[in-house]
């Protein structure tokens, strides 16, 4: 820099690049690095830093896509604690969050960590539940970490190690790798920057191989992808300088008094001898506009300063070497097709197109590791279970202090049989056994870590999902209104009930209107509609009402008359069919009535409303429906429900009870005088609760879906909840048989008509 430098190629370390970039900014000297991959170096702070290789931003995006592809949710990051390691892992965390995964623990190593320090660190992370490790460090320390991991048994079956491209650099540079090193990396997945094959690349690799074989016959020194990018960096700068001169640029320098102040009071660094490159801005612009084809492929910078089309090869170390299992590109994600082929097609990042070849994982297995285990501390999972005092068919404490039974417990134990691993657990009662425990309190304790999970009849609500993760619902439920109902028996005028008074009036008027219209259209040409006025009036009335039974004898001759009659007969057919169906329902189906029609009418009455103590219904009614808490009456048992409903508001009871549909079905199976009125006004389901981001919640959801698909879930439901319907067979038969009191009004009407006709005749 003291010798009037116009550009710098290097450095190879991100930590050094951070320091030198500050000076390069002051001197306006472009700093081209083919090895500093720290994503933070791409910020606007380092204007004169030019990265001529791929940024770790894309490498971490590739690792995040691999983790998402295998459906893992928690990873442990092991990294060197410097700018290179911290900033790379920070980007990884951001990328994982985009796919709802996360870094569950960050395990930093100080630069130059000893073997004992590495051992202590790995022993600590091995006690955690995640088995997905991302290793981001430098080659020497990375190999040491994997060697320690092998000695600790952390490269066996069930473990996953994804390491950054430092490992592929080692494999390419020192191939063939020693047997000790290759033995410590079996099953490891690593990345390598993808460079498409070309004649130019083949010639360089061949020339490099010939050169190094003559000079280092005992220790071959291969050409890694970083070497390819270093080669292209020199040519990139040469093209940029050529363009710099062609645009009228010249090499000149100037002094700046501010540089002398950087000496910090007579330090050893001669900052006052440094000069500012006057053509730095033009040269930087020339570099950013370079568009060439090198040994790494097409070289062109994006507006953000990244190389165009970043891509990586995904490599699996196995046997004495490695195998490529696919590619990753920022254009199309994971694929088994080279990215340069996909660039010719429209971009597609859908999950169905993401693909990799099979991996041989640590432990020489091709089965995808689960990615997590229970913490290695020998402790059983503490599972909280509500100690209910009502609706014990769902959950109940039986035969001892920690033995439970019921519908929810049977679903839980049946789902455990579908897990691909054993689950050590202990059910712990929650509640005093005298009152129903408050479910929200139990959910809160799961969130706080007091319990590892909770099993019971837990409605999945918005507030609860903010604290814990729920499984797939194993039963549908929603809030319903239950109120007293009374039977409405048909009376002597039941035949009038199918139509409203307005409907009867309109129907009668139309009978007369149609008769008059047909008479107008027919009486000039049809003898059936002619005669004395009295006869014509009788004919109109008889013709109109006889169409009700399709028994009219008068012919219609005019075309218009036939059209009107055809339409009217069709209407009569619909009316009589509807009347018959409605009357049949009224006379044969038990009719129930209640002053409460649903949740809206219940809110408008201002009467007390009952709910199950400890359920979420209280908060829902008061917060969502704005019902004053003074109207809400907590009830403890089914007997309390029945008594409060029978007493009613006037005797200190309630007008209705609001509870979940599953509970109410069980309650109504033995209570005939009550019924659900209206429809469900909230839709939800029941699930088991686990801490946030628990993989066990995902596995249990899959198990519950399998229970549903094979019919076991329905069989468990029938075992516990298929109660005896609230009905009397004798009463049903009595209702199905039509009684005289439903029709005697019609007989009286007919008798009156006969008597009146006889009197007029006489």
UniProtKB/TrEMBL annotation:
Query: What is the recorded name of this protein?
Result: Glutamate receptor 3.4, putative isoform 3
Gene Ontology molecular-function annotations: G protein-coupled receptor activity; ligand-gated monoatomic ion channel activity
Task: Report keywords, A-Z.
Answer: Disulfide bond, Glycoprotein, Ion channel, Ion transport, Ligand-gated ion channel, Membrane, Receptor, Signal, Transmembrane, Transmembrane helix, Transport
Q: Which residues form the Ionotropic glutamate receptor C-terminal domain?
A: 382-723
Q: How does it sit in the membrane?
A: Multi-pass membrane protein
Determine if Mitochondrion is one of this entry's keywords. no
Origin organism of this chain? Theobroma cacao (Cacao)
InterPro entries associated with the record = ANF_lig-bd_rcpt (IPR001828), GABAb_receptor_plant_PBP1 (IPR044440), Glu/Gly-bd (IPR019594), GPCR_3 (IPR000337), Ionotropic_Glu_rcpt (IPR015683), Iontro_rcpt_C (IPR001320), Iontropic_Glu_rcpt_pln (IPR017103), Peripla_BP_I (IPR028082)
Positions of disulphide bridges = 672-726
**Stated family:** Belongs to the glutamate-gated ion channel (TC 1.A.10.1) family.
